[in-house]
Amino acid sequence: MKVGLNKQKIIESAANMADEKGFANITLKVLATELGIKSPSLYKHFSGGLDELNKELMLYGWHYLDGEITKAVIGKSKDDAVIAFCYTYRKFVLEHKGLFEAMQWYNMYLSEEHLQATVGTVSVLFQVLDAYGLTEEQKVHTVRMLRAFLQGFSTIESHGGYGNPVSLNDTFDFALKTILNGIADLQGGTAQ
Amino acid sequence: MKVGLNKQKIIESAANMADEKGFANITLKVLATELGIKSPSLYKHFSGGLDELNKELMLYGWHYLDGEITKAVIGKSKDDAVIAFCYTYRKFVLEHKGLFEAMQWYNMYLSEEHLQATVGTVSVLFQVLDAYGLTEEQKVHTVRMLRAFLQGFSTIESHGGYGNPVSLNDTFDFALKTILNGIADLQGGTAQ
DNA sequence: TATAATAGCTAATAAGATTAGCTAAATAAT
DNA sequence: ATTATTTAGCTAATCTTATTAGCTATTATA
Asked: Is residue B171 in a domain?
């Protein structure tokens, strides 16, 4: 009784399940049940089993985020573009907590593959920063700082790791302002 | 043939194993073998099984980091103290990659426990920031921003996620400078 | 219409976590 | 010292999940 599945449908289903139940709670059995098949049948789509599925989930997540960010940034420049980038990133993580876990998780096992996956997102950030007239090295530093902050903030926030009642929106704005001021200072000629 | 184990020894062994083989590759079987016992015997020390062991590993890691940071910060103030804090954090993660995975990993499952664990480290940071005469809210924002940056940077760095040849030390210094400048601006009276 | 490929299935294997119940060593109580 | 109790180990057995092998019906192709 062929259900008519394919990689794409399975990955999307796994992504939804990750967001609902948490990435760590995805098993081939429960995923298969959800899809109306038995778990060994998943190997017809992912011969590499769970490991391959997780990898695909990671790639899917980064491409997804990539698309969201690209849409958000189009037509904006400079600070507006950076802010749109960061807000979209943060929003994505809050809305796709489980998928984001997959995006980071796999990172821990296959750097090379992960590097490829993040290339899209990172290169959008590079393009956004082109408008500021920074040196290549300054751009690299800024991209890395932004990535670090966004990943750290989103991870901590989405897991309830910030235990203070002060508004998280305010903190996010505060941090962006700090970073954007830093970029402005670089332009001001005080380039180190 | 009582080996004479206790929680502390087991946790330290697990921490070393995590750093050597990676957190995800710790199994009760291999840990037990390493310790010279059989895996069911571990339940005499951790009735909650792997889950409890992981939780203890997380707590151990945060206390460990806490101690290192406290030592590093003693006798320093203001920027020197912040810089010492950040360098110690980063160094710790590079030297204890596997343990740090545990510290973050558990985070994903037991927020309340994790909150308690990080209290020590976070409160040191708060004390360091006391010297700047910021408002409580500004301090909270700054602590959160630093935590986010440090966690994100260290995670990405330790997993080889930064694929550019530009010096990571330079990026780290660049980012600290940016954040410290931000703090300086707050003191300058331009408090928002 | 015959053939091949595909996507599903069931049954079986293997690895790991966990539980139950046993035993010897260490410790505490008489 | 001797007895009683706790403790820390063990083996055997169970459960869950991933994975492999081999079968079958449907779909697509020649």
From this structure: yes
